[in-house]
Amino acid sequence: MENTAAKSSLGEWLQDCVASFPELQGGLFLTRAEELELKNNDRSALFRQLIMEALNCLSMEEPQWTFVAARLYLKQLYEEVQSNKGFGEKPYSNLYGLIEHLVKLKIYNTELLSSYSAQEIKEAESCIVPEKDELFTYIGLKTLADRYLAKGFNHELYELPQERWMVIALFLMKDEDRKHRMELVKEAYWALSNQYMTVATPTLANAGKSYGQLSSCFIDTIDDSLRGIFDSNTDAATVSKGGGGLGIYLGKIRSRGSDIRGFKGNSSGVIPWMKQLNNTAVSVDQLGQRQGAIAVYLDVWHKDILEFLDAKLNNGDERMRTHDLFTGVCIPDLFMEKVEKRADWYLFDPHEVRRFKGYSLEDSYDEQKGNGSFRERYTECINDERISKKCVPAIEVMKRIMKSQLETGTPFMFYRDTVNRLNPNPHKGMVYASNLCTEIMQNMSATIVHSEETKDGEILIRKTPGDYVVCNLSSLSLAKVVGDNVLKRVVDIQVRMLDNVIDLNSIDVPQAVLTNKKYRAIGVGTFGWHHLLAKEGIKWESEEAVSFADKLYEKINYYVISASSDLAKEKGKYPAFAGSDWHSGDYFAKRNYEAEEWCDLREKVRSQGVRNGYLIAVAPNSSTSIIANSTPSVDPIFKKFYSEEKKNYKIPVTAPDLNVETAWFYKSAFHIDQRWSIVQNAARQRHVDQSISFNLYVTHNIKAKELLDLHLLSFEKGLKTTYYTRSTSIELEGCESCES
User: Is 575 helix (H, G, I), strand (E, B) or coil?
Assistant: First the structure.
């Protein structure tokens, strides 16, 4: 790449570039490029025009034009960065000088210089492989350059792609044992530069920089008190400012018409507090780039559930609408059973339940399928005449759920009993809800304010911190790690990188810091499932695909658990390990892992523990999968050929590795029988200790019964969550916080 940059004529360089792809018909493009070069003295304008010409040639028959456009853009970036830096003979040279310069500008973290010697940084520079830049498509490279490469405060570009990968590797490994630290840096760079894995958006943007935190998403539980509600709102603003998305559980808040301090009918319910959160999401944006992203969850038995389900609709009373929040509904097994039987469903005020029964209904779940403490307490509440209740047909509630889904894409579905039965840490609490993208399942609890007093001129506030969940994410590129047979090697370094994020992170919410250290939760994810199926020649709608998902995710799970256990031996178990399902072996029994290798792993975990209390979570990763030239998460593609549209550009894109062989296996999401997707997802869910951002794709004219059947099948097959219900009639923005 850099040898070609020295050529005197851009025309000669372009000829070499096009010649790299002999399957392309490049004659007209080269003629047009020569004309543009003769007419245009503005270098930046010339590159823009040449890139556009290359993209205009892009088609399903000649998808490689995206790489020609990418190399043109690379050449432009190289020239721009060299001009801005003002030092270095080549685009990739003097990494130490770059770090030193950006530390002085307060863009890079000073610890990059204090942790590593000049010799170590020079050694890291020697491992950079500029040719890895040629793996990028144009849309991938543009996404990386626009959003993640380090820029000055006047938006001048200083960093190139391979430098971003290396700086991430250096930063995440800086506290490792110096005896083998540089080997770990090289291994992390290898995994990133080959696009075998991606780190989460906040880590990709902020690792090695002087600002921003590294975690993707957070989950809070709001206490039923005025102070608890407003403190949670402040925490939400703090998280959003740092670039994190948020899931918030509202189920402990008393319903509309409930009493306050004994005065009946005074509570206005959850909707006004949702309005406050809606304002926070809009007014406190994420790192100055986009408005905040908050999902709120409520139990389907809560008295405010019907108003909650209408909160995103485009008609009705605007005073009851929160258009900028995402919604999720927490569903016990019993509700789905009542829907199927067309039976009645009862709604309660959680405050009344606590007052009259001495327990919180949301604090219980069915420990066995069809039997357990939730349905027992639910029945007790129905039979207690002191508790006011509202009776509605369960199917009517479900209709309201589906109406909102077809109009807005939400609410997300959270199957709480399934989640809690499979929680690896039930000894320390329970899971009430999920995050913004429905893949995180971790113990939650509210932070309680006990007192506030003045002493010696200071104000002292005493709180009992709750479990404020933190998501630390990264994802495997399935088509590449499977194709190159490097799965275990990548997982080993990936788990270490994620574990280091926990200690290196800067989070301004104290209870989140405590929770992060208590469970040391990570979320190894995946993307490129459809890409992998196409390369393997496997039809989406087939038993072969279901079996492939089952076997592959079992293998991923095995490697992840093993890697975390090895880390535990080296660095210590997570603090809450004792008494967990990992410790008892119940984790393995609940998933019917009985093969000899699994029995050996169970004993290994029992004896040396695991480093991380939660391990796998499959996020949406639409942007990062674009950077890595693959398909998002476990989703099917929309189209083989489409245009990626943002506010300032429209770029043509083809499915990855599109050719005459793979084209037959790239079926559009809206043409796929969703029952196959559900069964596929159930197969992989068994091997995922948390959950999966799993979308349902339906046409706008789907019949209510058909959509209901999809939800019933999801419940029956043991899915923990479903994310968006994506209809052909609505456009939905993906979550950028959780992308990894």
Answer: coil
Burial of 157 (0-12, 13-18, 19+ CB in 10 A): middle
- Using DSSP's 3-state secondary structure scheme, residue 381 falls into helix
CA angle (634, 705, 299) in 5-degree steps: 70
Catalytic residue check, 53: no
Token match 């006011």: residue?
A: 388
pLDDT band at 373 (very low <50, low <70, confident <90, very high): very high
Structurally, what CATH architecture does the domain formed by 469-727 represent?
Alpha-Beta Barrel (3.20)
Give the residue from 250, 246, 245 showing the smallest Cα distance to 222: 250
Active site residue 437: yes
Catalytic site residue from 159, 352, 362, 439: 439
Catalytic residue among 194, 435, 516, 557: 435
| Domain 220-464 belongs in CATH node 3.20.70.20 | yes
The one catalytic residue among 17, 57, 217, 437:
437
List own/partner pairs for 223-231 with CB under 8 A and 24 or more apart.
Answer: 223/252, 223/446, 223/447, 223/448, 223/449, 223/466, 224/252, 224/253, 224/254, 224/350, 224/351, 225/449, 227/449, 228/446, 228/447, 228/448, 228/449, 229/253, 229/273, 229/276, 231/447, 231/449
Cα(724)–Cα(735) distance, integer angstroms:
11
Percent of the chain, pLDDT > 90? 86
CA neighbor of 287 nearest in space, from 649, 740, 739, 737: 737
Which candidate, 354, 334, 338, places its Cα nearest to that of 251? 354
Which backbone phi and psi does 9 adopt, to 5 degrees?
Answer: -110, 130
**Domains in the chain: boundaries:** 4-190, 220-464, 469-727
Tens digit of each residue's pLDDT (9 = 90 or more) over 299-348: 999 999 999 999 999 888 888 899 999 999 999 999 999 999 999 999 99
| Element at 162 (helix H, strand E) | helix 161-172
Helix axes 373-383, 333-341, angle to 10 degrees: 70
Catalytic: 439? Answer: yes
Q: What pLDDT score was predicted for residue 388?
A: 96
| Closest by CA position to 244, among listed 402, 67, 425, 437 | 437
Say which DSSP state 733 is in.
Answer: P
What pLDDT score does 39 carry?
Answer: 86
Same fold? 220-464, 469-727? yes
